[in-house]
Amino acid sequence: EVHLVESGGKLVQNGGSLKISCVASGFTFSDHWMHWVRQAPRKGLEWLGTISENGETTRYDAIARGRFITSRDNDKNTLYLHMTNLKPEDTATYSCAVDVFSGSYLDSRFRGQGTKVIVSS
Questions:
Q1: What integer pLDDT is reported at residue 4 of this predicted model?
Q2: Whole-number Å distance between alpha carbons of 16 and 70
Q3: What is residue 56's three-state secondary structure?
Q4: Would strands 3-7 and 45-51 be described as parallel, antiparallel, or unpaired?
Q5: What distance in Å separates the CA atoms of residue 113 and residue 12, rounded to the nearest whole number?
Q6: What is the helix (H) or strand (E) element at residue 98, kind and residue range?
Q7: Bridge-partner residues for 42, per DSSP?
Q8: What pLDDT shows up at residue 93?
Q9: Helix, strand, coil fractions of the chain, as percent rounded to 5
Q10: 78-83: strand order across its sheet
Q11: Which residues make Cβ contacts (< 8 Å) with residue 114, sequence separation at least 6?
């Protein structure tokens, strides 16, 4: 069973930076691409980016590109998202998801509960 636990979310100031983590278990972490998504209050799920099994390839949505960087440590089964120049509109619950099939990040079975990030204006 896929188990993903995010941590590190907190209140940050406008323009600040934050690094959040996701610890994976229940599957072979190093065999899978991983995703980051977020959900703001009263809004739908937004895909932020993805990283390949070995961490050498990353792709980002326009909302994340240039401000967010994802990385991973396969020895620790841990995924990271380093966010910079945070804005109030980045306030959301951030979750990681394992890539099992196309669009699997939309399935809550393959996604963590998330960690809340609040950016003050």
A1: 98
A2: 17
A3: coil
A4: unpaired
A5: 20
A6: strand 92-98
A7: none
A8: 98
A9: 10, 50, 40
A10: 3-7, 18-25, 78-83, 68-73
A11: 6, 9, 38, 39, 93, 94, 95
Read off the pLDDT of residues 3-26 as tens digits, 9 standing for 90 and up. 999 999 999 999 999 999 999 999
Contact present, 8 and 115 (Cβ < 8 Å)? yes
Q: Give dist(CA 25, CA 64) in Å, integer.
A: 26
Nearest to 9 by CA among 77, 103, 83: 83
Say if residues 46 and 36 touch (Cβ distance below 8 Å).
no
User: CA 53 to CA 24: how far, in whole Å?
Assistant: 13
The candidate with the shortest Cα–Cα distance to 70, out of 55, 87, 53, is 55
| Residue 64: predicted pLDDT | 94
pLDDT in tens, 51-95: 999 999 999 999 999 999 999 999 999 999 999 999 999 999 999
